[in-house]
Structure formats: structure tokens, C-alpha cells
Automatic annotation (TrEMBL):
Gene Ontology BP annotations: ergosterol biosynthetic process; farnesyl diphosphate biosynthetic process, mevalonate pathway; isopentenyl diphosphate biosynthetic process, mevalonate pathway
Assigned keywords, A-Z: ATP-binding, Kinase, Lipid biosynthesis, Lipid metabolism, Nucleotide-binding, Steroid biosynthesis, Steroid metabolism, Transferase
Lipid biosynthesis keyword on record: yes
Organism taxonomic ancestry: Eukaryota, Fungi, Dikarya, Basidiomycota, Agaricomycotina
EC code: 2.7.4.2
Recorded catalytic activity of this chain's protein: (R)-5-phosphomevalonate + ATP = (R)-5-diphosphomevalonate + ADP
Species this protein is from: Scleroderma citrinum Foug A
Cross-referenced PANTHER family: PHOSPHOMEVALONATE KINASE (PTHR31814:SF2), PTHR31814
Protein family per UniProt: Belongs to the GHMP kinase family. Mevalonate kinase subfamily.
A Pfam match: GHMP_kinases_N
Protein name: Phosphomevalonate kinase
GO cellular component terms listed in the entry, alphabetical order: peroxisome
Pathway: Isoprenoid biosynthesis; isopentenyl diphosphate biosynthesis via mevalonate pathway; isopentenyl diphosphate from (R)-mevalonate: step 2/3
Length: 508
């Protein structure tokens, strides 16, 4: 039995560009989170040719069985159903399209890999799901959450789990697709490690396609892009590139008629080939700046919000264009300000760190009123610019919500964010992505060598907030640059989580 292949992909937070990111004329700032989704691919424990078992040990009854039929160009992955309610569309589509793609490279390798059958295990960090609390128990803190074992069982069926909105489906699909491409030899570990190389781009294009097909629509794609490439400024691809595949949604028998290599592999030359036009500009938050996330017990329907905003935009094109241009300018100012801070840190690290120390003790409205040394003034002004850009974007997004008749930033979220941002050392905050009532993000200063961290003040606000239950998440920004290959024995808690039960495979 060969060594298992383990791939992880991060969750995401769209800090700026909600709604606008759907239009390739605009961009969005997406931050990849330190919380990750893992896929383990290994040979089946018993010889089960052309069979695949997928299981997710965090949930009750989360097992799916498939058979693979391979005949020339035709590859059909059929689910072996115990019951119709047990279907997992995201997993099924990931298997179908990735295996079809793999078969186009080497039929002999394809048959060899499947000759013993495969077992696939998927598991996510705790931050992807709302952790259940006993009635009357105190609100969790970052310290208490860090004591929960990794990959904590949810003890409910997958259909009943509450998600935190960090892009679990995009991270899941990206990790499955990437692990399978490695298993079938379509990409190599060395090639996969190159951020803008062919192997990683192929994984992106495949995962992006699978995610759109499973959802039945072509979305903006920023969540998959973050799962593959890490934090970046994202501009979406032209949906036309997926038009041939979207026509065969749900009808796998017709898939054999369309070669996937010309659509997905950037290294395959084809005349008049549709191109993936998405743009990725790598990004990282400045030093001593921490991203903090909260799961808010509210709940909003993102498709409903997007539909109503799109209707407003269609009915009011001139007003919408002006407002979107203003939001875009504010978003660009935010990105420029954050990048400028990185440059200042590199230019004079000592002055930067000393200024962060001072600002962490003051409310943002006080930053430009204090006397500082001349060398620190540009840093103070740069942090103030980020704060003002963040607040301007919030104001404009609320205006768009009012115009469209939707709560992009509901009143309770406004109150929570205002209280959070008023704390010393907080740079900015907002509702991620399309907004709504289920999450917020905040950027705080995190100076060295101090116990007076702004994070503690923000946590206190969340703990005392009465209108909603607010739970912090452990996630910060990931600096690992997106999807990556892992070593099975080195991921804390992974081996224990995937082997805690003896799963029978005799009926596979």
C-alpha cells in the first residue's frame, strides 16, 4: 500500500469587494484563513477495484460509496446509494470531473491507481463549523476555543451542521481535486509548490469548474481562488470559459463528448481556446496586524441578497455605476494603505514597531491628534488612512443595501462593529463578502512584548454584546499561500481523527 496523499486548502474572508467581485471590471481583497480543510487519499484497505469510499469522520453517517466505469474516453462515476438522502453533490462532482480529466493523460496510470480502489477522507478545522454549547454555558473565547481538540466531532449528520461562512465547500473541493490530481500523477509535488506554475493553475481551473458545476451556476470564484493561491487581490474570470461544461450539468454520460484538457490545462495549446482571465495579485496583511473573525448567531441568505442587489443594479444602472465606482475607489484605497504599511515596516522596522505600540493603546479617532516623533508620523497617517478607507467602504455598502432594500450590514451588525472599532488599537472592520447577519471581521494591532492587546478589548465587547450571540474564531490570516501538500503524521490530530472508528468496507 502506497503512502497516503494529504492536501489541505484554506478558508477565506472577503474583506473588500462584496458584490463588485462578481463583475470583472472590479476587484476584491480576499484573505485566506489559517483554518484548513484536509483531504487524505489512500489505497482502499482491501482490494476493491474501481471502487471509491469517501467519508467525513466529523459527522454521523457521512460516508459515500462510488463505482468507476472506464471505457476509452468515457469515465462515469456512479454513486452506490444506501438512500437518496445520502447524496453529496460536491464530492460526486469532484470525483467525476477530476477522474475524467486524469483519464485523458494516461489510461494505464488511471487503471493502475484504481486497480485496488481508493479511500478518501475529508475533514475540516473546527472554525468551519459553529461549535455547540450547552445552555447557560459562557460564551467561548479564543483561549477556550484553542483548548478544543482539533477536528472535533460535530455528532450530527452533515445536513444539520451550522457553518461559519468561511468557504468550506470551496476548500473541500480544492483539497479533493488537488489530492486526486497528485494521486493520478497529473501534477507533481514539485510543480504544485510553484505558486503560479502550470500544476497549481490546473488545480485551480479544475476546482473552480467543479465548484460552479456543483452549485449549478458560475459564481465569482474568489473562494476557490483563495483556497488555491492564498491571500490576494482577485479579479474574476469570464464565465464563458465554462460554457461548454455548464451545458452538461448533471448528465455525466455526455461528459465523454467534451475533452477537459483543452478547457482546464493551461499548458495544452488549442486554437481559439477560451482563456481563464482571472487575475491574482498576491497580498499579505502588514506586520503586527491581526485578522480577527466572529461567528454571529444571525443568519442570511447570500443568494437572496445577491439577487436583490443585481435587480437594483439592473433597474438603476447610472446610480449603481456611480456607487460602485465610489466603493471600488475606497476598496483600492484600503489595499493601497495596507501595502504602504508593509513598505514602511521594511524601510524602518524599529519606527514601525514603536508606532504600533503607541497606537495599540489609543482609539482610532485619537491617532492623528497625538504628538509623535517626525519619523513616526507617516506610519500614523498610513494606519489612519486604512481606518478611514474601511469606514468609508462600510458607509457606502450600507447605502447600497438601503438602495437595494437588503440588509448588507443589519442594524445589529452595525452596533456590534461600531463598538468593536471604537476600541483602542482597532484598525477597521466589516461584514465579509455579501454581508448579512452571520459574521464580522476586525483588524487589530498586535504589538510585541505587551499584555495590553487590542484583541482582549474586542473580545470583551463581543462577550458583553446582548443583541446577538457572538463567538470568536481561532482563524487568523494564513501565510502558507493557499493549497499545500501535507505530511500525514505531522498534522496535529489528523491521524487520530480519521482512524477513530473502524469503518467496514466489505460492502463497498
Amino acid at each position: 500500500m502506497t503512502e497516503p496523499i494529504v492536501v489541505s486548502a484554506p478558508g477565506k474572508v472577503l474583506l473588500a469587494g462584496g458584490y463588485l467581485v462578481l463583475d470583472p471590471a472590479y476587484s476584491g481583497l480576499v484573505i485566506s484563513a489559517s483554518s484548513r480543510f484536509y483531504t487524505v487519499v489512500r489505497d482502499a484497505p482491501a482490494d476493491l477495484p474501481n471502487r471509491i469510499l469517501v467519508r467525513s469522520p466529523q459527522f454521523i453517517g457521512a460516508e459515500w460509496k462510488y463505482s468507476v466505469n472506464f471505457n476509452g474516453n468515457e469515465v462515469i462515476v456512479e454513486e452506490i446509494l444506501d438512500s437518496a438522502a445520502n447524496r453529496n453533490k460536491f464530492v460526486h462532482y469532484a470525483l467525476q470531473y477530476t477522474l475524467k480529466l486524469a483519464s485523458e493523460y494516461s489510461a494505464s496510470t488511471f487503471e493502475e491507481v484504481l486497480s485496488h480502489g481508493l479511500e478518501i477522507l475529508t475533514i475540516g478545522d473546527n472554525d468551519f463549523y459553529t461549535q455547540k454549547r450547552e445552555p447557560g454555558s459562557p460564551s467561548p473565547t479564543i483561549a477556550s476555543l484553542s483548548e478544543i481538540p482539533p477536528f472535533c466531532p460535530l455528532n450530527v449528520p452533515l445536513s444539520e451542521v451550522q457553518k461559519t461562512g468561511m468557504g468550506s465547500s470551496a476548500a473541500l473541493i480544492t483539497s479533493i481535486v488537488s489530492a486526486l490530481l497528485l494521486k493520478f500523477g497529473v501534477v507533481s509535488k514539485e510543480g504544485f509548490a510553484q505558486l503560479d506554475g502550470r500544476d497549481r493553475v490546473l488545480a485551480h481551473n479544475t476546482a473552480q469548474s467543479v465548484h460552479c458545476l456543483a452549485q449549478g451556476k458560475v459564481g465569482s470564484g474568489f473562494d476557490v481562488s483563495a483556497a488555491v493561491f492564498g491571500s490576494h487581490v482577485y479579479t474574476r474570470f469570464d464565465p464563458k470559459v465554462l460554457a461548454p461544461l455548464m451545458k452538461i450539468t448533471g448528465d455525466f454520460a455526455n461528459l465523454a463528448l467534451i475533452p477537459l484538457q483543452p478547457i482546464l490545462d493551461p499548458a495544452v495549446p488549442v486554437h481559439n481556446k477560451p482563456t481563464w482571465t482571472s487575475r491574482v495579485e498576491p497580498f499579505q496583511l502588514p506586520p503586527l496586524v491581526r485578522l480577527v473573525l466572529a461567528d454571529v448567531a444571525g443568519g442570511s441568505s447570500t443568494p437572496s441578497l445577491v439577487r436583490k442587489v443585481n435587480e437594483w443594479r439592473s433597474n438603476n444602472p447610472d446610480d449603481a455605476k456611480k456607487l460602485w465606482s465610489d466603493i471600488d475607489a475606497s476598496n483600492k484605497s484600503l489595499v493601497e494603505g495596507l501595502r504602504n504599511l508593509i513598505a514602511m515596516y521594511k524601510e524602518n522596522t524599529d519606527a514601525y514597531e514603536a508606532t504600533v505600540q503607541i497606537l495599540s493603546l489609543l482609539q482610532p479617532v485619537q491617532w492623528t491628534t497625538i504628538d509623535t516623533e517626525e519619523i513616526a508620523k507617516p506610519v500614523v497617517q498610513a494606519f489612519d488612512k486604512v481606518f478611514r478607507a474601511s469606514e468609508t467602504t462600510r458607509t457606502l455598502m450600507r447605502k447600497m443595501g438601503e438602495n437595494a432594500g437588503v440588509d448588507i450590514e443589519p442594524a445589529a451588525q452595525t452596533d456590534l462593529l461600531d463598538k468593536s472599532i471604537a476600541q483602542a488599537g482597532v484598525i477597521g472592520g466589516g461584514v465579509p463578502g455579501a454581508g448579512g447577519d452571520d459574521a464580522i471581521w476586525v483588524l487589530v494591532l498586535e504589538p510585541k512584548n505587551t499584555t495590553k492587546l487590542p484583541l482582549l478589548h474586542v473580545e470583551r465587547v463581543w462577550h458583553e454584546f446582548k443583541q446577538r450571540k457572538v463567538s470568536p474564531l481561532l482563524a487568523t490570516e494564513s501565510t502558507e499561500k493557499g493549497v499545500r501538500v501535507e505530511q500525514f503524521d505531522l498534522v496535529q490530530g489528523l491521524k487520530q481523527a480519521v482512524t477513530k472508528r473502524d469503518y467496514a468496507t466489505e460492502n463497498l
